[in-house]
Amino acid sequence: MLRLDKFLANMKVGSRSQVHEIIKKGQVQVNGKICRTAKQKVKESDEVTVNGQAVVYQEFHYFLLNKPAGVLSATEDRSQKTVLDLLKAKDRYQNLAPVGRLDKDTTGLLLITNDGQLTHQLLAPDHHVPKVYYAMLAGVATQETAEAFARGLTLKDGTELKPGKLRILSQDFDHDASEIEVTITEGKYHQVKRMFASQGMKVLALKRLSMGPLKLDENLEPAAYRELTAEELAKLKGSAL
């Protein structure tokens, strides 16, 4: 159960002070009765209305963001823009955070939620949730590169990685360049970039395409976002078990 003022503030009806004001004015009803007490406890199942409009409580929120380059995957930063800064004021619910991190210059799919349990399940190493990335490379990825990825790479600092899957999309031997898709089940620091560096290649552009069953919505422009559909959320939770 929640206090009425917190219930309304959490649902972005207004700031805590604004919520107190509308409660005092008798604009809030709980189960059909006017309530002027901010401290009154309400359940998620209670019928709460503000000026006749129903306010349905939703504890967790899930947003699919097409992350642009130049934005930090963080909740806050004093000097740089973060992914939470891309959310509209009405969507900035308490405790929202990105699920994992994409490098500042990496683009693509990023899930933002305040569901801590789901976040933990998606990021837990033993759950092996696959993540697919598209990359443009300086250097030509070959079948030998794919075989090395499939065996599991050892990075220059000695870090041993789980096997990954490399799919070569294009090879340009004249310009020493290639395009690939890579699937990994870990999320180590700068992992994809370090994987290719260990093979003598450099990642020029990196975009995350999917995380488990959740795929990037190509209709979303960079920096745009939307809520997950019920189907997407159900599949995502199923994959994290």
TrEMBL record:
Belongs to the pseudouridine synthase RsuA family. InterPro entries: PsdUridine_s_RsuA/RluB/E/F_cat, PsdUridine_synth_cat_dom_sf, PsdUridine_synth_RsuA/RluA, PsdUridine_synth_RsuA/RluB/E/F, PsdUridine_synth_RsuA/RluB_CS, RsuA_PseudoU_synthase, S4_RNA-bd, S4_RNA-bd_sf. One of its GO terms (biological process) is enzyme-directed rRNA pseudouridine synthesis. GO terms for cellular component: cytosol. It is an enzyme of class 5 (isomerase). Keywords: Isomerase, RNA-binding. Its EC number is 5.4.99.-. The keyword ATP-binding does not apply. Residues 2-59 form the RNA-binding S4 domain. GO terms for molecular function: RNA binding; rRNA pseudouridine synthase activity. SMART domains: S4. This is Pseudouridine synthase. PROSITE patterns: PSI_RSU, S4.
